[in-house]
Predict the 3D structure of the following.
Amino acid sequence: NFNCVYCYQNNKKTILSKKDKISIVEFVKQHINKYRGLSVSWFGGEPLLNVDIILELSQQLRMVCFENRKIYISDITTNGFLLNKDIFKNLIKNNVLTYQITIDGNSIIHNQQRPLKSGKGSYEKIIENLMEIKREIKSKFFKIIIRINCSKIIINQISNVVKEMNTYFSNDERFSILLRPVMNLGGDKIEDFDQNIIDINSFVSVYDYFIGDEA
């Protein structure tokens, strides 16, 4: 549902078939007793476009682990646009407890780099969703990692960007910030964005600055 300027994935929409879902559950049943537990990562594209599949499989995999006295945990990488309060509640009920959500800078930069396919911005809705979760979900047993992908476009403003995120979330230990450089992971789009990729030394300098600031 996004048209990110540096995305390395194609836009082909694929959905797990009924046969695939059955095969996954059967595979876990056959092998779960070799391990202490099961950890599942939901990744896309955008996995919340098919949240019903996530919930269906999560319920089945949790039951397999319960019946075999094994631990079940899971995490998800999502753009956050569809992560409203009700969906979030259903996910944490099914042990989806760690979330990585990318917010690229302030609203202007983010909406340039991570617009919807329609061309409209996505920043305001993501912040709205996260603030609603922060305000209304009382559980302490989840973690939301806000990932900031650093490029030349954002690097000179990164201090202000982090301060803005801290304004929203620093008083809640369930939220944290992760800095990562934009990288060339392939795909057609990165060719047009390649000139905005920062070198590793520039990124390390930014990272060291914040580590030193925290110390």
